[in-house]
Design a protein that fits this description.
With 504 residues, this protein is of the alpha/beta class. The chain folds into 2 domains: 314 residues, 3-Layer(aba) Sandwich (Peroxisomal Thiolase, Chain A, domain 1), CATH 3.40.47.10; 68 residues, Beta Barrel (OB fold (Dihydrolipoamide Acetyltransferase, E2P)). Helices cover 30% and strands 23% of the residues. The protein is built from 14 helices and 17 strands. Strands 5-3-2-4-8-1-9-12-11-10 form a 10-stranded mixed β-sheet, sandwiched between helices. The chain has a 5-stranded mixed β-barrel with strand order 13-14-15-17-16. Helix 1 crosses helix 3, helix 7 packs across helix 12 and helix 11 crosses helix 12. The protein starts with 6 loop residues before the first strand and ends with a strand.
């Protein structure tokens, strides 16, 4: 293996199953089977018969059951997904990696493997991932037995679940689900734009309606249905309230059976294996950024990590957002797209370029940490059909906590530069754990089957510190009003580790 060789993406593949247990056990997928199907498609896509024997590194994106500490494995535990994948596709790699948690993982792995290829440490890297939550939920609902237990003798690098992305203070105030964190961003953006509750729901629906049209035509979509703005913006039995301002179809849907795979190798190895020139897609720029716990971030209407990752990837590619023909922007919630378009300087209302190639996580499907590998697969296919055009993939982990961006084209770059280490913030907000008066900064109201349950706010004191609190009964009703409560004065009373607020 030689140093300085260009890394090139040569093969991509995807898989989908609609199995939900309703017709019995036949055909039930597993995370491994979905990866194997997608991986075989990627090998076939590369158009090089001997490629599988050239794989020296396999990296697998972490599945849901292994991403949450102490999560159960209701259908048995595959204790070596990288090793069993290698076995089932007939590969004998020197290195096996099980990646850490986060939706940034697919693009981060591309950035990493490209750098290792350029450094002469890797010659052919295979990246795959999947989720089979639809199968798991369906099997339990219909009392169908399925078996995912498996293992392999090969040793692998387990990168673990990484640092906690939520704090004791956040948990104590009820911030325990991704939608709750993202709703705090969403209402901060709504307040910045001067929107009421219904006006922001309308804006979110206008943003996401074109996503549904893309998903409806994508053969790998789990939910291929086009929705209109009225449906998306209106609470209903099919589109119920979850965490203000979110309705069901503003949220990434994880009940999916989807897999994806991508193959990167050195250009000289691609030449030796006879990979056709028209299959090759180059990484022109990579960028990465990370951020603090949400309650410690100075800014809640955007993302430092997105800004850093996006600007770094474009600068490395020597391009601007205006030079991109295609985008696949992570779309777990509308605020992620609002924030990424802000980072890119795109006016999402008027820009004619699409913001998704898949259809987005609520409509194409949200396969856990692996969604952006589907975005990369779609990007490769689109760029092959439009030689010389450029496209950008933005992958997001946590609550806009970890970001990875890639700029791609079939045009060969003049030079390759490895992505820099993750950019990190230099400023934090200090938290106040005492009773105080403050100005409401952002909020959400969580919902259960019986309706609104808990109001959660961030508020800023005059000295710049931030306080977390839950609403009393009267304040909860006010949070549900049409007008945004952001900017109003609140009185917070702390007992133990939890604050309760009323409007002053």
């Amino acid at each position: 293996m030689a140093k300085g060789d260009f890394p090139v993406l040569v093969g991509v593949g995807q898989s989908l199953s609609q199995w939900d247990g309703s017709a019995g056990p036949d055909g039930a997928p597993s995370p491994l089977s979905l990866m194997v199907e997608a991986s075989k498609a990627a090998l076939a896509d590369a158009g090089a018969a001997a490629l599988v024997r050239a794989i020296d590194t396999i990296a697998v994106v972490r599945i849901f059951e292994d991403s949450v500490r102490s999560a159960p494995h209701p259908h048995g535990h595959n204790t070596n997904l990288p090793g069993t994948l290698a076995r089932d596709i007939g590969a004998a790699p020197e290195r096996l990696i099980y990646e850490t948690v986060g939706g940034q993982s697919p693009q981060s792995l591309v950035n990493e493997m490209a750098a290792k290829i350029f450094a002469g440490e890797v010659e052919c890297a295979f990246i795959s991932g999947s989720e089979a939550n639809r199968a798991s939920k369906g099997a339990r609902r219909h009392s169908v037995e399925i078996d995912w237990a498996d293992s392999a003798d090969a040793s692998y690098e387990d990168r673990g679940s990484g640092p906690m992305m939520l704090s004791r203070e956040e948990i104590k105030h009820g911030l325990v689900a991704p939608a709750y964190f993202y709703a705090l961003f969403e209402n901060a953006i709504a307040a910045r734009e001067g929107r009421t509750r219904s006006q922001h729901r309308r804006a979110m629906a206008e943003l996401f309606q074109p996503f549904t049209a893309v998903a409806a035509k994508n053969p790998y979509s789990q939910f291929p249905v086009e929705h209109d703005i009225g449906f998306l913006s209106t609470p209903s039995r099919e589109n119920y309230e979850f965490s203000d301002p979110y309705l069901k179809w503003f949220i990434a849907q994880d009940a999916v059976n989807q897999g994806a795979a991508a193959i990167l190798m050195s250009e000289s190895k691609a030449d030796a294996l006879g990979v056709p020139a028209e299959k090759r897609v180059y990484l022109h720029g990579g960028g990465q950024g990370s951020d603090d716990l949400l309650s410690l971030r100075p800014r809640l209407d955007g993302s430092f990590a997105m800004d850093a990752a996006t600007s770094r990837a474009l600068a490395q590619a020597g391009k601007a957002a205006a030079d991109m023909t295609y985008f696949d922007l992570y779309s777990c919630f509308p605020c992620a797209v609002f924030s990424s378009t802000q980072s890119l300087g795109i006016d999402w209302k008027t820009d004619k370029r699409g913001l998704t190639l898949t259809g987005g996580l609520p409509f194409f499907g949200g396969p856990g940490n692996n969604y952006s590998l589907h975005g990369i697969a779609e990007m490769a296919a689109r760029l092959r059909a439009d030689a010389g055009a450029f496209g950008l993939v933005l992958a997001n982990g946590g609550w806009m906590t970890k970001e990875a961006v890639g700029v791609y084209s079939t045009a060969k770059p003049a030079a390759f530069t490895p992505a820099e280490p993750y950019a990190t913030p230099t400023e934090q907000v200090e938290l106040c754990a005492d009773s105080c008066e403050a100005i409401l900064e952002t909020f959400t109201v969580t919902h259960g089957k019986a309706g609104p349950e808990k109001g959660i706010i961030f508020a800023r004191l005059a000295d710049g510190r931030r306080a977390l609190a839950n609403a009393d009964a009267a304040a909860l009703a006010t949070l549900r009003e049409e007008a945004s409560p952001v900017g109003r004065k609140v009185k917070i009373t702390v007992e133990g580790e939890t604050g309760t607020f009323s409007f002053a």
